[in-house]
Every structure is written in structure tokens, then in C-alpha cells.
Amino acid sequence: VSVDSTNSGGGVGGGGERGGGAIMDGRAYVALAKLGTSRGLVNDKVVKKRLKEICMRQLNYHEDKKRGKTADNSDDGKRKAKNKIIFPVNDGRLFNAWAKMESKSGNLSEARKILGRGMELYPNDYTLLQAAGNIEERLGNTGSARKLYAASLAIEPSAPALIAYALLELRSPIDAMTKVSNVTMVRKLFEEALLIDPKHGPAYNAFGNLERRQGNTAYARQIYENGIKANCTDA
Question: b/e string for 3-41 if b means 16 or more Cβ within 10 A?
């Protein structure tokens, strides 16, 4: 899958980089991975193999740039460069998609390695940091998970990361001595998540569940109803 270089975006998550060859658009592969992980419409093994290949080419591309490989300016070299596919060098989503597939298969250690490679290339991709936090939490490393969620939020506050941080506090309070969750902080995190994304269904569910467990049934009902009125697409 390739697109004309004049139509591809740049920056984190842009899907490609302007250059001298055809540009491989990462968005198509992210969409393909979603079909496999959430809908089962694509063979996971095929998608995983393709994602791995593309991600490894990204790593090799960056390594070549680090080593200062010079361009081949011969006629043959220019012809090869023209026909060469340049894989997206500003798209950490592919590492995220690959790690998600490994995680789905129960390969948490492999998912952690993949996300680590992605974060080396894209240290400012907040979604990679959040995903890495989730893996650490599932591995039982709550301290590392909390740091990764915080790092993600420091780069770009997002509803999913705010919810992840809040739920971690409820499951594994930062105050290890009392083991009592900071409910006030958790409420503020849920409120901020809804300010950022008023249509984020999981935020309403998590917030409502918290209030229900705290005995605030009427308030919990109001939160659930607000979620219904918001017509959330991901509830």
C-alpha cells in the first residue's frame, strides 16, 4: 500500500515522510490491525508479520540515518532510490498496533520490547507511553506503570491515559502504607478526561462506577445518563 508523497503528512502519527520514493502509508496498516484485533476479519498472523516487517524497516531506516549512510548518486543508485518504498518514519502507531497484537496473544514481554523500540524512535509519542504503562501494569509493575502514564500525560493529556492513571490509583494506591486510594484525585482525573473528550464512554463508565461504590447512587446515575446523552461512540 503506498500513496503519492505529495499527499502524505508529517509529524508524529502523520503516516509518512516526504522523500524521493514512494511512501508507505502507515494508516492502512493500523486500520488492518484493528480489523484483526477487534473484529477478527483479518488473519492475525498475517497482520502481525506485516507489522513486524514494517516496524523493523523503520528501525533500520533510523539506524542508517544515525550511521550517516550516504546516498548512491550513480545512475543505478538513483534508479533504485526512485523505486524504493520509504516506510513511515514518523508513525509510532505501527509499533502500538504490533504490540497490541502480541498482548492479545498473551505475549506481554514481547509487547514490552516492541513498545520499548517504538519509544526509542518516538519518545514524544504519548500513545506509546500509555500503552507501555498498560503492559507494565499487567505485569504487576505498578510503579513503572504510574511513571509511564504520568510521562504520557506530561506530553499530551488524553482521556484514555487519565482514566488509566485513575484506575491504577483505585487498584494500587500510591500510598502503600495506608493502601487507601486518593478518591479526590481520581475524581479530578475523571472530570479532566471528560473535559478533554466529552464523548469518551469509558470515562463515564469508570466515573459512574466510582461514585456507585462510594455510595453516591444518585450522582452515579446522573453520570451514566450524561454519558448516554453524549452519544458516546466508544461506550
Answer: eeeeebbeebbbbbbeeeebbbbbbebbebbeebbeeee
Among 22-36, 40-54, 177-191, 207-221, the range scoring the smallest mean pLDDT is: 22-36
Give the whole-angstrom CA distance, residue 148 versus residue 126. 9
Distance set, CA 167 to CA 121, 157, 162, 209 (Å): 28, 16, 9, 11
Percentage, residues of the chain above pLDDT 90: 54
pTM above 0.70, yes or no: yes
Q: At what angle do helices 44-67 and 93-104 cross, to 10 degrees?
A: 140
Query: Would you say residue 125 has pLDDT above 90?
Result: yes
| Cα 65 from Cα 138, distance rounded (Å) | 35
SS (H, E, C) the chain: CEECHHHCCCCCCCCCCCCCCEEECHHHHHHHHHHHHHHCCCCHHHHHHHHHHHHHHHHHHHHHHHHCCCCCCCHHHHHHHHHCEECCCCCCHHHHHHHHHHHHCCCHHHHHHHHHHHHHHCCCCHHHHHHHHHHHHHCCCHHHHHHHHHHHHHHCCCHHHHHHHHHHHHHCCCCCCCCCCCHHHHHHHHHHHHHHCCCCHHHHHHHHHHHHHCCCHHHHHHHHHHHHHCCCCCC
Per-residue model confidence as pLDDT tens digits over 61-81: 777 777 776 555 666 655 555
